[in-house]
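anyone seen this seq b4? input:
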Amino acid sequence: MSLIDIIVGVKNEEKHIKRCINSLQNQTILDINIIVVDGCSDDKTPEIVQKISKTDNRVQLLQNPDEVISSARNIGLKASNAEYVAYLDGHCYVDADWLEILHNTFLNYQKRCNLAGVGSTYSSPPDDSSFGKSVAYALQTFFGGFGTAFTAHEKIVKVDTVAFALYKRSILEEEQITYDENMNQCEDTDFNHQLIKKEYVLLKHPQALVYQYRRKNLKEFSRQMIDYGKGRSRLAKKYKETLSPHHLIPVLLIVYLILLVLALILFLFNRINHDLIILTSLPFFIYVIVDLIYAFTIIFRQRCLKHIYSLFIFPAVHVGYGIGFIKGLIMD
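predicted toks r here
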């Protein structure tokens, strides 16, 4: 029995998996197991993991025939017999003190509250692409993150959901907490909400950094945001109490854009007057100004003109999420 088992769900991560595992092997806490659960990769991911496992018996490879990340984490949870479990994704890596920070925080706070888990903060890898770094910086702002798990904090905070967390395994067993394998997005929020419903507390640590590689381009990122929106819609149907006003803002944005297009068409055919089209367009111009302010703030803070990507990342977040949420309501 180890102190901590780290569950790493992967699929086609040959580019990043070695660095991911190496960062876990080098943790200051040595009493760990690294459970890699592979979702039918068709690249060299399994071979890389098996090669590492031959030189380090703390590393083991399990198979996930259902392929989705929720299934991978359940397989890892079932295989674990450690005091604590944590999880990481194959395209991420961590500093050597990551587990120590999470574990020490759990020990320090467990007597102060009904603590179930302590989670991490997203960070941009130094070698990530300019687009990937722009995504990370954008999501850490209020305008881009909407107060979600992506938002940056300066101190340990109580949260409703968190990513890359360390949990007390006995709590998960006693409360029968598992991942919903029908959730292919927002699976962490669903998992954490099960704990919140049972009056447990989750914390997020600003110094427990997880370096996560982002999508390569605007097309892939926009598709990811649509998927997030669909997942959030599905979660809202399952747990209505998880729905907050800020989740509906992107939906209202989509409705507004549709109305704006209709207004412009009517204006072109002289169906509405000039003053009305100006009034209708005002929210759009306010949005553009806010977008410019946040984008250029990132550019000036990072002193890099390449973060001009942020101008398009913010709309991709809001529009993509809104479209996905609406699709989820209609299709699911």
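Residues 4-214 form a domain with the Spore Coat Polysaccharide Biosynthesis Protein SpsA; Chain A fold (CATH 3.90.550.10). The chain has twelve helices and nine strands. kinda curious what u guys think
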